[in-house]
Amino acid sequence: MGIIMKIRNFKPAGRRVLAGVLGIIMVLSMGFPVQKVYAEERRTVRVGIFNLGNFQGFDENGDAVGYNIEYLNKIAEINHWSYEYVPAQNWVEATDMLAKGEIDLLAPAQKTDALAEQFDYAVYTMGTEFAAIYTLATVRICYMKILIRWGNYVLELPKIRPFIKNL
Questions:
Q1: Is 6 helix (H, G, I), strand (E, B) or coil?
Q2: What is the b/e burial string over 153-162, where b = at least 16 CB atoms within 10 angstroms of the residue's CB?
Q3: Exposed/middle/buried for 147, CB within 10 Å: 0-12, 13-18, 19+?
Q4: Each residue of 42-66: pLDDT tens digit?
Q5: Which of 71, 81, 146, 152 shows its CA 20 to 30 Å from the CA of 160?
């Protein structure tokens, strides 16, 4: 409000000069296109890829394909990166390659305390995983012991309280 009051206090000639200067600035600013700012040099990031169905893998031509690849391509576009996809047999081998510095990036990765001591994780997640235990409706289950294997790690969950379905 203070600026408007000061402009009103200008004499008519002063207002015309001010309007003319602002008009010239606006016209000149339209001549300069807005561009994305990128790093001066394109960076090549080595990405470990192992076959994981439609999530990621290599097609018959040896090109990396899948959801993860499309996700990474969007990141590359934003950061002005290019990728070198490095094949791995499985998650364990890819993790070893990351630890040795043979690759720069690996996905998907579940965050664990043990791995967080060795590796950095992205601030934002790239997806959510859901898992369920299921069986035929006619099968009786009395108790269950769950072992989750991830490479050399085995997580044993305590016995689930006994239950019986469809009695």
A1: helix
A2: eeeeeeeeee
A3: exposed
A4: 789 999 999 988 889 999 999 999 9
A5: 152
Note the pLDDT tens digit of each residue in 78-125.
Answer: 888 999 999 999 989 999 999 999 999 998 887 888 888 888 888 877
Give residue 58's pLDDT. Answer: 94
Tokens standing for residue 136 = 């035929």
State how beta strands 105-106 and 144-150 pair: unpaired
- Token pair of 119 as six digits: 């590796």
Residue 33 corresponds to which tokens in the numbers above?
């296109």
CATH architecture assignment, domain 43-116 = 3-Layer(aba) Sandwich (3.40)
Residue 127 has a CB neighbour count (10 Å cut-off) of 10
